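Supplementary notes for students who missed Thursday's class. We covered one full example, reproduced here. Read the sequence, then the structure, then the short commentary at the end.
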Amino acid sequence: MTLREYLDGDDRWIPWTFVAFFVVVVGANAVMAAFAVGSWTGLTTDNAYRNGLAYNQRLDAAQTQQALGWRVGLDVTRAADGTADIAVRIRDRFGYDISDAEVTAALMRPTHEGADIETLLKPRDAGYYGARINLPLPGQWDLKLHIIRDGKSHRSIRRLHLS
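Structure (token representation):
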């Protein structure tokens, strides 16, 4: 019996095509759901509504910070033993070193929860601040600097790749 004779004389294959179609669709959805659940890092934004309401305040703070004219230099190196050295140099708009500031550094993983580190950078030299920390993982990190001096504030975020 040829295929043509089979198809002309017997229509039993038609329901099986519908069954095969739905088996393929359900299988594809199951694979996608397994990938979605297995790859979720658990990162979320805390207080998204409040952050949205404070948007204009953040814009004003950014304009105030820009008017200060502080320049921040950054050097971060990671050693083979997993420690990282953070070195920051801060200058005012005229190029003078700022030596009497409180500098906080927060290192956060953009792709994983639970590895975030926050530390206070200590003065090292005129205008220089730094700290040595244990960095648990190599890879991408976001470094958030918060500098306070005489009631004035400067914030910056830098994406780093530390191997």
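Commentary. Residues 70-162 form a domain with the Immunoglobulin-like fold (CATH 2.60.40.10). The chain has four helices and seven strands. If anything here is unclear, bring it to office hours.
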